[in-house]
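Replying to the earlier thread about multi-chain prediction with a worked example.

Input:
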Amino acid sequence: MTTSPSEAPAEAPAEEDTTEAASPLADLANEIAGSIAGTAEVNFETAKVRVDPDRWVEALTAARDEHGLLFFSWLSAVDWRNEVAVGDKLTSEVEERYELLAAVSDLTEGRLVIYSTNLDRDKPTIASLTAVYPGANWHEREAAEMFGIDFLGHPQLEKLYLPEGFLGNPLRKSFPLLSREVKPWPGMVDVEGMPGQADEEEPAAEDAEA
Amino acid sequence: MTVTDQDLVRHLSEAAVSIELQTPEMTLNIGPQHPSTHGVLRLVAQVDGERTHNVQPVIGYMHRGYEKLAEVRNYAQITTLINRIDWVSGYANEVPFIVATEKLMQLEVPERAQYIRLILTEMARISSHLVFMASYPLELGAATPLFFALRDRERVLDLLESVTGGRFHPNFNRIGGVKPNAGAGSTQRKVSQDLPKTFLGETKAAMDKVLESADEIEDLVAGNEIILARTKGIGVIPSDVAASFGLSGPNLRASGVNFDLRKVSDYLPYSKFEFNVPVGENGDCWDRWYLRLLEIRESARIIQQAVDSIPSGPLQAKVPKIFKVPKGEVYVRAENPKGEMGYYIVSDGGLGPYRVKIRSASFSNISILPWLLEGAIIPDIIAVMGSLDFVLGDVDR
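Result:
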């Protein structure tokens, strides 16, 4: 993920995330975390509640029945790795794991809470949410093929996007992006400006398609 | 018209069929290419006579792996990709991503830029809904509304093009504002750094036309007995089922849920304008069509108010040429024409994101199909499927 900038990168403001002051969303997140022995944080108006993987289904059932989070928005994962085959490496070492995320929301004030749990880096397994939110069905199928997560009790854990028999899990950080192996940065040709305009124009790198 | 089993039995007995009917179950394959799918979708249904059960959508024909591609791009480059998720409303796709990035960078976006975003987003909604106004009756056999709706969509797309240079893929948002040298087809740097001079006036006039033709389309379709018979009471989705499947946008509101992200969230300054959120009663195919017609009117009203009150000022916040986005995780969602579209961005402080999760509306919207088509009759498959207004690019990403 390098675009060889023509000038020195501007200093990004060094900023530490601090949990934002009390708001209705933070109150809800703290209440949920308290009832399920998890931890809550609200950053950039995004509420996240970390729960234990053993209490995943219990936590989401309570979200639906007790906290009024009736709307199932999405489910996905993040592959936290120190060695990556694509993109930039993380700047600091992390504990390698899959972070499973499920976002649910109410249908009145628009408060959305993202539930998060950590799965084993070598054998990620978790109970399925399909009995709680039927909408989780396809999202879990996607996470299963893209990250190799096993959802126990899922009624139909078949491939969703990928053809049957596809090997590998494309959204894992260890899965290489072939187009980038062949040609490291295909957009490079587009960056060259017209003669005489090179200094005036902004880099047009955003027009690059892989 | 709903055909009940009794109707079928009566029909057959009247026809004096004396042989004993055998109806072994068979597999019916629809697609991957079918006129009623905007993109490439396949349905595999088990049919017993006229009744279907276990309908399985087969998706993935258009999967382009944008989440993976986003990991090897910087933030500004990703807008080019996400334009192509829901190509019927390409502009609207960009907004939540850009807003999410700005949130991470804690940028203040100039008010004029926000108003321009809002106007263009509502134009994208009108053009997306007009495609639905056109295509849904067509799927049910009525070709005429197509010409009315697409004529008006062209007016809106012309305006979009005059500002952004693109009809389908504007790629017009920049982090911190909108593209400063607005204007179509220019290879030279424009002297004017703002909207085309005639844009605001033309927009107002075009919205009057859109409101007029919304009435025309309503006259044309809402009084058509065949369309009413084929859509009323068909494909009913109760509100709790809709929510648990993650249906959003017009599909959710048609089921009677009064929930619109434009009212409850501040990704664009919608709170400054007066508009209603139409809500359906029955959650059937007809409600889903009619509600979108009402939304066209509301969007036109929003645009007219925004044109009247648009402040002057810069189009861009001060942003370094090469920027890094601070560490953090953010989720921003927006009320897009098809429903909730959101981006969950994990930034590690670099030039590009560590992970982007794209929440697209159509993906969740059509995941209800197996539930919805259980026990439906074959002609209703098209009526029900079409009423969900999905785009396969938005399903497959």
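Chain A is about 20% helix and 20% strand.

Feel free to reuse this layout for your own posts.
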